[in-house]
Amino acid sequence: MRFTILIDNNPNPKEKLLTEHGLSIFIESQKTKILYDTGNSDAFIKNVVKLGINIKEIDYLVLSHGHRDHTGGLGAFLEINKKAVVFLSERIKNQSFYSTKLSDPKDISTDHSLFNKYKNRFEFISQNGLINDNIALIASFNQIYPVPKGNRHLLTEINNNLIPDNFSHEIALTLKQGDKIVVFSACTHNGLLNTLNAASSYWKNKSIILFAGGTHLLDSNSAIYENKEEISTIANTFRSEYPDAMLITGHCTGKRAMDQFEEKLGGKFDRFFSGYSKSL
């Protein structure tokens, strides 16, 4: 298995690739090619050309949740790729999402018009399930551990009222390699440890060897987000519960959290960026 970050907030230190506040990951597993999210725009497609990846050959697209920085390139993808099945939560279809982080409520929803324009391309899911024998989507998360404090800025609309988003529309992508599990989660609004617990419980296996994605552990000059001690607790629990696992993160993980993870996990930690690639 090999995965490549098609676009991310963080720039490639060597190649001239586009960046944006968004995430898109290409995963090639045996004979299956998967795209996990489409970034905030069509910029990931421009990077794909430089990276030598043919998105026409992608078999499945999985959308992690209903925010535009992960679904903004969906229309551009569907125009080029004519065969991929698109998996996403049924809770996205008629739902609007808003952010209050930098302003009054800003609409950050998926473009719902695409669901009618390409209605035969979508498969809406409401629970955990297999794509094939070795690939599963995780849509149910038990709140055993705290969720990211940055979720407080994110809302959804119910009956014309804005309420806190519970992220029941989030989906993690998991792949089984022999008796080992690989987990991808774009923003991990349900929490890193809750997501790993859900993946391990689904596969009835704690042998997770990789988590790749954002953690939504944001930076701040105030105390509204996780402090050093809270991040340290997450890192220590990750290390003790999943001793074989490597954590590779970027996108919505703040520098403070990355530094803490690196300190605690050492060689079991890495930072991704546009064009980052790793084989397992």
UniProtKB/TrEMBL annotation:
Domain Metallo-beta-lactamase: where? 22-85
Superkingdom is Bacteria
From the UniProt annotation, give the residues forming the signal peptide: none
Supply one GO molecular-function term. Answer: transferase activity
| Alphabetized CDD domains for the sequence | DHPS-like_MBL-fold (cd07713)
Q: What is this protein called?
A: 7,8-dihydropterin-6-yl-methyl-4-(Beta-D-ribofuranosyl)aminobenzene 5'-phosphate synthase
Q: Which organism is it from?
A: Alkalitalea saponilacus
The record lists the lineage as: Bacteria, Pseudomonadati, Bacteroidota, Bacteroidia, Marinilabiliales
